[in-house]
Amino acid sequence: MLDPWLLERLVCPVTRRPLRYDEAAHELVSEAAGLAYPIRDGVPVMLVEEARVLG
User: Which HAMAP family match (predicted)?
Assistant: First the structure.
């Protein structure tokens, strides 16, 4: 589980809009950008190069 305090403060680096935590996929999802950022070892990887494009 991602810390709710952290989730409230993180934004998409592309759109600067809030992210949605997808617990099942262990990703932070930016609906606006169509990207999903991975969480590795409890740390969100907020690099566009590491994001998965949503289909």
Answer: UPF0434
% of the chain exceeding 70 in pLDDT: 100
CATH of region 4-53: 2.20.25.10
pTM of the model: 0.92
Alpha helices in the chain (DSSP H): 4-9
Average pLDDT over residues 25-31: 97
Q: Is the dihedral of CA 32, 10, 26, 2 positive or negative?
A: negative
Q: Delimit the domains of the chain by residue range.
A: 4-53
Rounded to an integer, the average pLDDT of 26-55 is 96
Beta strand 43-44 with 52-53 is unpaired
